[in-house]
């Protein structure tokens, strides 16, 4: 079984609120046919505007939840066009804070031959409502389900030493603790650092984790077959040290 996250920047236009990129996920989705997987989608341009404008106030939470349901409906329709039939599961129904509190809806979907579909969300906790990212969800689901791999599908083909497309930006074949910790001149900050930390948390469980382009169907197929695609960035705990500073695509 795999855990696959479709990044928010890959399936939405983050510069235009509520803009879904129809068809962008279908190639990758088609590669998953016949393979058990739990799916996650990033919120992208659907939820972020509300959280930014209103915070975690009643109006902000309500507006965010409504936007996420609309986006999830788009994702379900897009997946179905690729032959992947998803069961939407709201994290606010199964998570308490950052912890998975209830597995039954996910287990039932898997048992029925469907693909559980979760997303970044606003969830209850001991401290009121909090934001849980799709990356946080991927880590927690990896703990519970021990997949063969976790794949973060992005709008670019991996983690880079600088903003992809800028002069001198080099894609990293792998990332390790040094990328987050700033050792040996390597430094990733902000959202990219959190994504790398999530992938390394998965790697610490002994589960392969990869950052790949959402368009890299061959790379995804290689991961499904147990391979280690050179076209993706892998999260490693040990081995070769990366030799550049790092940044990455938005997911």
Labels describing this entry:
single chain, 251 residues, alpha/beta, eight-stranded mixed beta sheet, two-stranded antiparallel sheet, 10 helices, 14 strands, globular, disordered C terminus
Q: How many strands?
A: 14
| SS class | alpha/beta
In round numbers, the mean pLDDT is: 90
Taken from the alpha-carbon principal axes, the silhouette is globular
How is the largest sheet built, in terms of strand order?
Answer: 3-6-2-1-9-12-13-11
Instruction: Please describe the biggest sheet, giving its number of strands, its sense, and whether it closes into a barrel.
Output: 8 strands, mixed
Q: Radius of gyration, rounded?
A: 17 Å
Low-confidence stretches: 183-189, 240-251
**Termini, distance in Å?**
22 Å
Order of helices and strands: EHHEHHEHEEHEEEHEEEHHEHEE
> What percent strand?
15-25%
